[in-house]
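dumping this here so i dont lose it
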């Protein structure tokens, strides 16, 4: 990023989920900017336990917290785990923010989710429409748990003057993503299915739904840059979308992955499986106006990098 403000130099920053898919990229950027970054695994500090959250703040004494840790997954994982997805995401954020206030943390960055938006929000999704309806049912418990942290951030700012900001990233993709077919999102799942099917010379690959819904995706390195920019430059209560504002249908996405992986078999659509939200596309003007973020990775190029990463991982595991 190359910030010349000196904002990050020597600043004590704790990143929850800093060893995860998005977190590793955020930590790398912060360290390059000169921040003193701490992160940890869930075995070291279980953030669903109040005592562990307290111990984490006592041990690290951060000036700024970026909360990325979450229990996440695709449609299947959300459908199978609505209770634990709600509880774990809500309790982690609530306790982390409450204790950040008590420990006089100067700034708290809460990373939410596009799943917080109403199922039928006007396209493109504007931050002003976030309360105008109920989220899509398959991921509503997760989305609502995350949305309650927006309420908490705004309430704490109002009552305590606590500087908490709230970001709404769209679906992420890129090297290092979760490739477990049980709980991964659509891009890593399909890259794995098509790559493995090509290697096995399989005749067909099964895909959930009808292919008609649309999605917007953001390359993970762009998302990390947005979070670091917001942490440095944004200090308001209003939520901010973080995305590319490029929309693609699931059907077109699958065909593109088929092309880029070199798979030549048939795609079979299982229409008994849920489609999820009908459309997703963000209005991203607030992020540009407030802290100067625009995505810079073309989707085809980012997808190609993700496929190359997966195929290198698989080649390494076979050898």
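and the seq i came up w/
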């Amino acid at each position: 990023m190359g910030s010349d403000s000196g904002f990050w130099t020597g600043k004590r920053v704790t990143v929850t989920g800093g060893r995860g898919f998005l977190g590793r990229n955020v930590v790398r950027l912060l360290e390059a900017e000169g921040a003193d970054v701490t992160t940890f695994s869930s075995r070291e500090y279980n953030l669903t336990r109040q005592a562990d959250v307290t111990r984490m703040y006592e041990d690290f004494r951060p000036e700024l917290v970026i909360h990325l840790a979450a229990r996440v997954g695709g449609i299947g994982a959300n459908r199978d785990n609505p209770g634990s997805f709600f509880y774990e995401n809500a309790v982690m954020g609530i306790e982390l923010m409450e204790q950040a206030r008590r420990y006089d943390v100067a700034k708290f960055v809460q990373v939410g989710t596009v799943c917080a938006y109403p199922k039928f929000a006007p396209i493109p999704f504007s931050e002003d429409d976030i309360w105008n309806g109920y989220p899509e049912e398959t991921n509503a418990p997760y989305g609502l748990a995350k949305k309650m942290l927006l309420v908490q951030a705004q309430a704490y700012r109002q009552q305590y003057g606590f500087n908490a900001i709230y970001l709404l990233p769209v679906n992420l993709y890129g090297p290092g993503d979760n490739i477990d077919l049980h709980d991964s999102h659509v891009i890593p799942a399909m890259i794995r299915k098509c790559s493995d099917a090509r290697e096995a010379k399989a005749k067909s690959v099964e895909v959930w739904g009808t292919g008609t819904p649309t999605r917007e995706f953001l390359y993970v390195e762009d998302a990390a840059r947005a979070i670091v920019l917001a942490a440095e430059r944004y200090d308001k209560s209003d939520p901010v979308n973080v995305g590319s504002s490029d929309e693609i249908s699931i059907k077109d996405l699958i065909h593109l992955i088929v092309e880029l992986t070199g798979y030549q078999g048939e795609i079979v659509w299982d229409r008994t499986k849920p489609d999820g939200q009908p459309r997703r596309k963000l209005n991203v003007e607030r992020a540009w106006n407030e802290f100067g973020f625009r995505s810079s990775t073309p989707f085809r190029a980012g997808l190609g990098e993700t496929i190359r990463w997966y195929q290198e991982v698989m080649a390494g595991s076979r050898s």
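The chain is about 45% helix and 15% strand.
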